[in-house]
Write a structure and sequence with these properties.
By secondary structure, this protein is of the alpha/beta class. It has 3 domains: 160 residues, Adenylosuccinate Synthetase, subunit A, domain 1 (Adenylosuccinate Synthetase, Chain A, domain 1, 3-Layer(aba) Sandwich), CATH 3.40.440.10; 94 residues, Adenylosuccinate Synthetase, subunit A, domain 2, CATH 1.10.300; 159 residues, Adenylosuccinate Synthetase, Chain A, domain 3 (Alpha-Beta Complex), CATH 3.90.170.
Length: 432
């Protein structure tokens, strides 16, 4: 029986991971986040109230679930405590005591959003489309070995020295390159001193907790953020996020052993969406795309930005299946395609030299001149909303799902037919 399950996005993020993570966390003892920061949100439903979690793992809604924030996550303390307060107000029990943070997690400081916004402003029309929350600059400082970590707060004298050096570097950029106001050492130190004790009370050895949980046969869910094609290595670079969003990133960012993963569940919509700039071969800039956006309520959980919409991309999915070692797929928002006369699937890319490719390129500039090759399928007029049994689906809807399986190279484990927990068809439950 699988005990260690990874849940991750296989498209450009916003695939509906929150619902699936919430469904699976009802059976999980431990849920861990391993990358990203407060730039990605999962919408959860508490009673009749929606709560967006960004840093806090989705398992927080279940009172006996331990929630871990791994070393691969960049932690904005203010944003974390705002989330905790929102969850407390929603009536979630013992929120803070059930969150453990790796001391090796990077601290996201007020200077990082300033750098992020300055960088995007300077890029102009070439802006990547970041959330402006400072995630990228924080990862940049981590890799450059000038960043500060949560565990550095144990020794404040050492922390002050690191902070001083970091701000000298970043303020030089803000003043001389971005022509933006500097961030003072005193303001950042005051901010950190205000959250230090509370944050350190949550620090623990995440890798050890995971290993002890595995040995005790606990059910552990590894919760991914963003999506495969926003991965810093395998996404549409440079229009990507700043961390590894693929299955391998869940291992390195949490401290789990790679041979201890039992099941990798990839989340995808039955169409595609993308937020921000970057290549998007199947994008629909017409009334069909606008209809999908409206019916699917395709607006960012954190930013509110309208998402770009398009047809399902089986070419991209083939790459996602391979690099994530997907065991199964969870397909979301089946009901959004209800009532359409025709539905298209991208089966290949026609390159600018006329050749046909079955796999996507690895850099944004290589997408220039690409034309999607489509296969058309008949739609269905019947409603799929809320259906919970495969046999009750319209025949054309079944044919569509089976064709997605064939083209993508992965079996469908879960099919979502609405936003609620019970509006789901289970063909293979990862924890069973």
């Amino acid at each position: 029986m699988p005990n260690n399950v990874i849940v991750l996005g296989t498209q450009w993020g916003d695939e509906g991971k929150g619902k699936i993570a919430d469904l699976l966390t009802s059976k999980a003892n431990i849920v861990v986040r391993s990358q990203g920061g407060n730039n990605a949100g999962h919408t959860l439903v508490v009673g009749n109230k929606k709560v967006v979690v960004r840093l806090v793992p989705s398992g927080i809604l279940h009172k006996d679930c331990l929630c871990l924030i791994g070393s691969g996550v960049v932690v904005n303390p203010g944003a974390l405590f705002e989330e905790i307060e929102e969850l407390n107000k929603a009536g979630v029990e013992n929120v803070e005591s059930r969150i453990k943070i790796s001391g090796a997690s990077s601290l996201l400081l007020p200077v990082h959003p300033a750098i992020d916004k300055g960088s995007e402003k300077l890029r102009g029309k070439g802006a990547i489309g970041t959330t402006g929350r400072g995630i990228g600059p924080c990862y940049e400082d981590k890799v450059a070995r000038r960043g500060v970590r949560v565990g550095d707060l144990y020794d404040m004298e050492n922390f002050k020295e690191k902070l001083k050096a970091l701000l000298e570097y970043r303020n030089f950029q803000l003043k001389n390159y971005y022509h933006e106001p500097e961030v003072s050492f005193e303001s950042v130190l005051e901010y950190i001193e205000g959250v230090r004790d509370r944050l350190l009370a949550m620090v623990d050895d995440v890798s050890l907790i995971l290993d002890n949980g595995r040995r005790a046969n606990k059910k552990i869910l590894f919760e991914g953020a963003q999506g495969t094609f926003l991965d810093i290595d395998y996404g549409t670079y440079p229009y990507v996020t700043s961390s590894n969003t693929v299955a391998g990133g869940c291992v390195t960012g949490s401290g789990a052993g790679p041979l201890h993963i039992d099941y990798v569940l990839g989340i995808a919509k039955v169409y595609t969406t993308r937020v921000g700039g970057g290549p998007y071969p199947t994008e629909l800039n017409d009334e069909v795309g606008e209809g999908i956006r409206k019916r699917g309520a395709e607006f960012g959980a954190v930013t509110g930005r309208p998402r770009r919409t398009g047809w399902y991309d089986a070419v991209a999915m083939r790459r996602a299946v391979t690099i994530n070692s997907l065991t199964g797929l969870a397909l979301m928002k089946m009901d959004v395609l209800d009532g359409m006369d025709e539905i298209k699937i991208c089966t290949a890319y026609k390159l600018k030299d006329g050749s046909i490719s079955q796999l996507p390129p690895l850099s944004a500039h290589e997408y220039e001149g690409i034309t999607p090759v489509y296969e058309s399928m008949p739609g269905w007029k019947e409603s799929t909303f809320g259906i919970t049994k495969w046999d009750d689906l319209p025949e054309n809807a079944k044919h569509y799902i089976k064709r997605l399986e064939e083209l993508s190279g992965a079996k469908v484990a879960i099919l979502s037919t609405g936003p609620e927990r019970d509006q789901t068809i289970y063909l293979d439950n990862p924890f069973d």
